[in-house]
Amino acid sequence: MGRALWLAPAVVAGVVLVASAGKAAAHVETDNGCKGSGTFREKGLFVDAEQIGDQVVTIPRSDTVDWDGSVTAPPGGYSGNIAVDLPPPFSEWVVDTWSGTSQKTSNSGARKYDLPSLVPAGVEFQLRGYHNDDNGFCNGYVNLQLDGGPFDSPATPVSLVATVATGAGLFGTIRPLFRRGGTL
Amino acid sequence: MKIGRTIAAAVLGFLFLLFVAADLVLFGVVPLNSVVVTILPAAGLVLGAVLGALAGNRRRPPEEFPQELPQEPMQSEPFAPPSPA
Fold it and tell me: What is the mean predicted confidence (pLDDT) over A40-47?
C-alpha cells in the first residue's frame, strides 16, 4: 500500500516529463507552393512560416502585423482558416477563415491585435494554418508564446489557489490512508 | 466501502490534477495543446476514486476507539436532606 502511494505520483510525473519533451516549432506541408509571412511592426519581428525553424516565437501582447501570402498559380476556388490548436478532446479554436474564387496569386494586408490580460503570457501554443485551392493544399503551424511572465495574467494566482484548495480537500478525504496502525 | 468518500475523492482528484495541469501550462512547462492537459485530470479522477475507496475501507486502529467511560461510584447510602440548623 505504501509503495502504491508513491508510485502513482511518480507515474504522473513521468507522463509529464515525456509528453513535455520538445518538438518541432514550425512545419509546412504544401503541394501548391504556398508561402506566408508576417512582420510585427512595433517589435520589428519577421516571421516566415517555412523558415522559422525549431524556435518558439515570442510575440508582443499587442501589435500590428503586416502579413502576406502567395501561391505559385491562380488558385480558382479557395478556402482556408487559421486556428489555435487545443488539447484533446478539444479540436481547435478558429481565429479566422476565408473562402472565395480568385485568379490572384498573392495577397497582403495589415491586422492590429490587442490580447486581453486574461490571456496568459509565456504559454506555448500552436497556431495552425490551412489553405486549399484548385491547385492543391497548404498547411502548417508555428509555435508562439506571448511576451511576459506567468503572473502577468490573473489566471495564474487563481489557478494556484485552486490547486492548493483542491489538494487540501483531496488530502482530507483520503486522510485515513495516512493514519498509523489502521487496517484494510 | 463508503461510496460518498469514493465519489468525493474522485471529484477532488479530478479538480486537483486539472488545476495542476493548468499550472503547468501557465508556467510554460507544457504547451497548451499537450496531451498532458488531457491525461492529468483523467488520471486524477481514477486515482482519486481508488484512493477514496481505499480510505473508505480503512478501519481506525483500536487505540483510537474511546476507552471505557469512567463510572461514578454508586451511592451506597440513601440521600438525606440537610437538617435544619
Answer: 89
